Amino acid sequence: MADTSPPSLEWSAQYTLAHSRRGQPLSGDKIKLSQSALEGLLSAASNAAAADSRRDLPAYDPYNSATYSAYRQAESQYQDQRQQLPYPLTFRLVNPANGRVVYAGVREFSAEEGEVELSPFLQEGLGLKEREEDRKAANDTIVDGESPEKDTPVSTITVHAKQLPKGTFVKLRPLEPGYDPEDWKALLEQSLRSGYTTLTNGEVIGIEHGRERLRFLVDGFQQEQMDGVCIVDTDLEVDIEALNEEQARETLKRIAEKMTRLPGSEHGSSAGGELDLFKAQQGQVLPGEYVDFTLNSWNRTQPLEIELNGNDGEEDVDLLISPFSASQRAKPRIDEFVFGDIDSRPRKRIRLDPSNAELEHAEALYVSVHAFAPAQIEANGDHQEASPQPRHFTLRASHPDPATSVDDSQGGTETTHQPDEIQCKNCLQFVPKARLVLHEAFCFRNNVLCPHGCNQVFQKSSAEYQNHWHCPHDTANGDSAMSRSKHDTVFHPAPLRCSCGTQETFSSYLTLARHRTSTCPEKQILCRFCHLEVPQGGDPDVPNAEAILSGMTPHELEDGARTTECHVCSKLIRLRDTQNHMKVHDLDRLSRPAPVLCRNPNCGRTLFVCSKAGDTRAGEKQGQGPGNDVGLCSACFGPLYVSMYDPENKALRRRVERRYLSQLTQGCKKAWCRNEYCASGRKNLGIAGSITTKDALPMIKPFLDGMMKGSEGSPLHFCVDEGSQRRRQLAEMLAAEEDPPGKGGYGLTWCVGALEAASGSLDGAREWLKNFAPVRGEERGR
Description:
Oligomer: single chain
Largest sheet: 6 strands, mixed, barrel
Helix content: 25-40%
């Protein structure tokens, strides 16, 4: 069997390192090359294919049929392979400045000409971080009028096309102790599959785990002589060993401590679960951890109140809430929540009104209790707990009185005093006038009023007064070093950045949470088109105007560009246009003229023929109308038609009379007939007694008198074929159904038209009615 794998490439080029650009940064071992690099690779693949196809061929002899056939076969193989590139494309990157080497895979060919974009992992592996810092420092020290690129260090990278063997075994060593091996398998599998094409011996790979970054040293492969392997489309066995014996002991110690603090254990956080409106939840949470609850149902017409109380007056427990919907999938965290109360108070309360826009499409509510992990504080004599104790809390959800305001729900009451009472200037209490002198003498000696305007009174020697603080940046205050540390950490930290790569910095965790639940490209959504949980995508610094106007996320806007066939009109439409397209069909459905039934109550046809595409006048447009003024379809009027001049319809009247007399006295002799004005039909219906001509004339006279009144006249009862009669019976059955339920069903005229368009198929008729017919209520409203 001939080898059809692409030939090996021989291609290399030198590029300058591209400066960091706005947008989604590269991850893992990915690079971006220019379009000319792709053209060079294709050219190298063509040359390699030509050389490979002619390898081991004898000297060409045009008069030798054997060599001629071999060369023709080689030429055919070359044509098949000349545009093929190896999969996956892997490259060997070399930094000429220090000789460091690392292997990489390509993300795309969209870089500027002469430049190569590298992920942070590759820059670190090639030792380019220092050069990048030097470049930034040089740009920061330029003088006015000088070009920023002048005299700044430029890194040059040599890129070689290099096909690596498939890896089967790799040994990894964690650089820090304490990583739980139970977490490594899933994290490694996900990270390597999504971000890495190759592994380079001696390099350090990083894996994001929440806010932690796990770092592993690649310490050898099964092929000892290889310094890099490809890990795509291969079964890779991973062996994780501690870096040394001391690290192994420390890891085991931390894992043992972690086991004692697992969720649900005595010293660990509570397990969480479902939140009950009628029952308070007692629990505990360790500092820095979360206890997650879910509220699946509540009365959406009433306000909802979630209250959290620290059982021991603890101020470091926080209440975080996020709705679970198509646009919000993540559980609330301190840097990603929609509603939150994170002030330094033991009692936290959040009230959600039914008019809140964030709750409009919420399937449930995620409620999380978080405990702040204080940093070590030495200035005030406090210290971080060596073994932090769980914080106990009580969580309850309820429907408060709608007339109660938010301020009232906080428990504020207005104090009253007697007319003979005077307010103390120090503690602001009202005391009797006769005792004011004694009270003030004691009060000024022992108590002090906060000079910052919060009107709190403390004992001069109390710890609360010593620890009382006011934030210089806002109106927050507290009475403990922990509350101040929490306030400064949450509301006034060092500038925060989001991992999505945005250039914007955030002054607090509140603004970061607002970004991560709104415009952050990494926010998880449930795509309405692919029905998968995916990042919403987009550029965080340049909002997509089309996405904002359409109400879709950038991912949905891109995914919705795929086309599908409309099940109503069979046209190709974009997925994101389906909703508007169906609205057009709905307007057509309500404005479509109703079918006109044949005047014969036994007939299952319309006068102008209904089509499968929903046109109730399809026959008229094709010249296939009834062709008469009686109101009969062409099939029922056919036996009455003659080519004679009859302006007063006297001859037509006689033909109708003779047909009635023939039906009533002789019958149509058809076993399926159910026409009560036919002798055969009366027999099939079980109506006793025969009708003579004398008895028949008075019966048919009213029909003859109203014959030329069209649809306003009396019906004309003629025998029809079995298929038409069956369709009429099925139409009457459909009209009696209440489908859709609660909307009254469809009228008889539409049911007859549906069965005519569906050729008598009951399922097809129901589908036709659903797509093209108005229900009875809509029909009356037109």
